[in-house]
Design brief:
The structure holds two protein chains of two kinds. Chain A is an alpha+beta fold. Helix content of chain A is 36%, strand content 18%. Among the domains of chain A are: 41-174, SH3 type barrels, CATH 2.30.30; 278-350, no CATH class. Chain A has nine helices and eleven strands. In chain A, the strands form three sheets. Chain A has a six-stranded antiparallel beta sheet, with no helix packed on it. Chain A has a three-stranded antiparallel beta sheet with strand order 9-10-11, with no helix packed on it. By secondary structure, chain B is mostly helical. Chain B has three domains: 1-45, no CATH class; 50-143; 174-306, no CATH class. A two-stranded antiparallel sheet of chain B has the order 1-2. In chain B, strand 1 (20-21) and strand 2 (24-25) form a beta hairpin. In chain B, helix 6 runs antiparallel to helix 7 (204-221). The longest helix of chain B is centred in the middle third of the chain and has 53 residues, at 117-169. Chains A and B meet through loops of A and helix 4, helix 5 and helix 6 of B.
Chain lengths: 356, 307
């Protein structure tokens, strides 16, 4: 059964694969089917557009922020959580919406179905608050209108590289990231000391520290339909592009050779001179005039170039006339439109605002 | 007719026993039938070391959501690159077992229609990341080994020549630094370990290494040992005697004494039998070491008894 379940995961309807308008429809349908209490107050963002970097979020949990929109605009509060599904944030002191929670979702010490639930805020609806120290030692709060991220450092508390958060146009003022709550190791985590011990050294090109009879092919499926990317049967265009090294710049001798080739190409005659044309034409005319076979003469006369030229000229004239005619018609149409417009506006004034 | 059919097709043992046929009771009515034993979990005992317990966490049927809450992350490729094959192999099986446990528990929750199965799936995906990264690291190692071999084929000879020149030009090579260098080069390029053990199989690369190191030592120390009268080393047996000895003047002197004895026999080994001969030398040496070890162990035993 478990394999069937996995198949449904792989081949079953996946909403993310549908076009955006169908996706929206399905979202609305699922929203309708949910209890009002469980409906999110903001739209769920698709996974590829969700924030992953601190520079996208601009705030972290514990940051002090100034609310700039809604009933509570002007209050300074703290970021309580990041709602990753909607790219929005929860604040400690925020607007709430009243929901009717089913008893299954009741919190301890709750005795009513009606519950005040905090709303989420967009990142642009808050401003990050930082403190600066004046020359006389007093501290002052400032709210950053715009932020800019320049440079990065390794943060011991977050245990990763963090961008440096500065105020735009005053980049010397840095608003440090808040200190996160320490995370305790869970049952599944490996101690740090164990991960840092190095036990592998490459010291031979004859053998690795692998047992006898081992090969990487043993953990690949030999009957796989889709071959691994390490061992492709057919190479795509992009694969070839990746695998071919870039071309080396041309050497001096090659450059000189190419210049010579170009020179020779330029010297070649591409257009016939009038003398040559006259000469060839004379020869051809002489040949055609000396034809004695009556059938062939008739064929030659029928293919007289003068006839084609006259036909072409006639067609061009007809086209010109048609274009002029069209132009006149266009002008007439414009005049007619203008007159109709005038007439319409008059009638509007007469009869009040009528919809045509 | 109907009754006969029942007696034929009824599957319940009790009913079949009670049904009458033309010959009367099939089972005597005086026989007392006991109540059937209901299958309950209390009637089943499982050994503690039963292999299927590997699918359970601490013998628990299913874990709760809190018990599988995690704060960690998968192993990164950079971390795994530092680990030996043995470590990676162990980690792979730790991951596999945990995934099996989670998969079973997830299935249990899914059968009931619980959303908790998603939590188990989430952790399982995290562990899966570690597993594909292990494969990634092993693939990297394999391809780098292949690349190194190809590169050595192209300009390995040149590198060995350079090393040879450096070694011969150096005035003082009887230092720990140069001993280490020799040891490293013979393992890195020819795969000859410092300590020979039973599972060594001599092949062409091994032979090449023996020749390179043996000739290098002889070229360096033959003059200093005062044995330039030997001329060049004639065959693999002579080269191996030099290879076996330490990279010092004394070592080469010892080897030269052995070569003198060997040359009296006037045997030369042809190229086709070189591998066989070297394998024989190594096997003899290992056997000798083993017999010495056994003797010593027995002596110790006797001493202990006498005490």
């Amino acid at each position: 059964m478990s394999s069937l379940r996995d198949l449904s995961k792989r081949y079953g309807a996946n909403v993310d694969r549908f076009p955006h308008y169908l996706r929206k429809m399905f979202e609305q349908m699922s929203k309708k089917s949910q209890l009002p209490a469980l409906r999110p107050d903001a739209r769920i963002v698709e996974e590829s557009k969700r924030f992953t970097k601190p520079s996208q979020w601009k705030v972290q949990v514990g940051d002090r922020v100034l609310i700039t929109r809604g009933k509570l605009s002007g209050t300074v509060t703290k970021v309580a959580a990041l709602h990753e599904a909607s790219n929005r944030i929860y604040l400690e002191q925020s607007e709430t919406r009243r929901i009717i929670a089913p008893q299954a979702f009741w919190q301890p010490n709750q005795d009513s179905h009606v519950l005040e639930y905090p709303k989420t805020y967009h990142i642009n609806d808050v401003k990050v608050v930082g403190t600066i120290v004046e020359e006389d030692g007093t501290e002052r709060d400032i709210a950053a209108d715009k932020l800019v991220f320049k440079g990065a450092y390794f943060d011991q508390d977050y245990n990763k590289m963090m961008p440096i958060r500065r105020i735009k146009y005053n980049e010397h003022i840095v608003i440090p990231w808040p200190k996160p709550e320490p995370v305790e190791d869970c049952e599944f985590s490996t101690p740090r000391e164990v991960t840092e011990v190095r036990t592998h050294y490459t010291d031979s090109i004859v053998k690795l520290d692998t047992p006898e009879g081992y090969s990487v092919e043993t953990f690949r499926n030999p009957t796989a339909k889709n071959w691994s990317k390490w061992n492709k049967r057919y190479l795509s265009k992009s694969d070839i592009k990746k695998l071919t090294p870039p071309e080396m710049p041309l050497s001096e001798t090659k450059k000189a050779m190419l210049a010579d080739k170009l020179k020779i190409k330029e010297q070649q005659i591409t257009e016939m001179s009038p003398e040559v044309l006259e000469f060839i034409g004379g020869k051809v005319a002489q040949h055609l005039n000396s034809i004695t076979d009556p059938n062939f003469k008739q064929f030659v006369d029928a293919n007289d170039p003068a006839r084609f030229i006259a036909k072409k000229a006639k067609k061009a004239e007809e086209k010109k006339a048609l274009i002029e005619n069209n132009k006149e018609n266009y002008k007439l149409n414009e005049i007619r439109k203008r007159v109709e417009q005038k007439h319409k506006s008059k009638s509007v004034k007469k009869h009040g605002n009528k919809i045509w | 007719m109907f009754k006969q059919q029942i007696s034929k097709f009824h599957t319940s043992a009790v009913e079949m026993a009670r049904t009458t046929s033309r010959k009367g009771y099939r089972l005597s009515p005086h026989v007392k039938l006991r109540k059937p034993i209901l299958p309950t979990i209390d009637n089943i005992t499982v050994k503690e070391d039963h292999p299927l317990w590997e699918f359970f966490s601490n013998g628990k049927f299913v874990r709760t959501g809190q018990e599988i809450a995690y704060t960690g992350r998968p192993w990164s490729v950079q971390e795994l690159r530092r680990k030996s094959f043995e470590d990676l192999h162990g980690l792979w099986y730790v991951c596999l077992k945990e995934r099996n446990r989670l998969y079973r528990e997830e299935h249990v929750y899914e059968q009931v229609g619980s959303m908790r199965s998603n939590e188990f799936d989430g952790l399982s995906e995290q562990i899966r990341a570690t597993m594909w990264r292990i494969k990634q690291v092993l693939t990297e190692r394999d391809s780098s080994l292949l690349r190194a071999k190809a590169e050595f084929k192209a300009d390995g000879e040149k590198y060995l020549q350079e090393f040879r020149e450096k070694y011969l030009q150096e005035e003082q090579v009887e230092t720990d630094e140069w001993f280490d260098k020799l040891e490293r080069i013979q393992y890195a390029i020819f795969g000859i370990p410092d300590v020979l053990d039973t599972n060594i199989k001599v092949d062409l690369t091994f032979l090449k290494g023996v020749k390179f190191i043996g000739e290098l030592k002889f070229a360096k120390f033959a003059e200093a040992a005062g044995r330039s009268d030997l001329g060049e080393l004639r065959d693999i047996a002579e080269i191996y005697t030099v290879f076996e000895e330490s990279a010092t003047v004394e070592g080469v002197q010892n080897a030269c004494d052995k070569i003198d004895e060997y040359r009296l026999s006037e045997i030369t080994i042809p190229g086709s039998k070189e591998i066989q001969v070297v394998q024989g030398f190594i096997d003899d040496k290992i056997q000798q070491a083993q017999s010495e070890f056994i003797e010593e162990a027995e002596n110790e035993k006797i001493e202990n008894k006498s005490i």
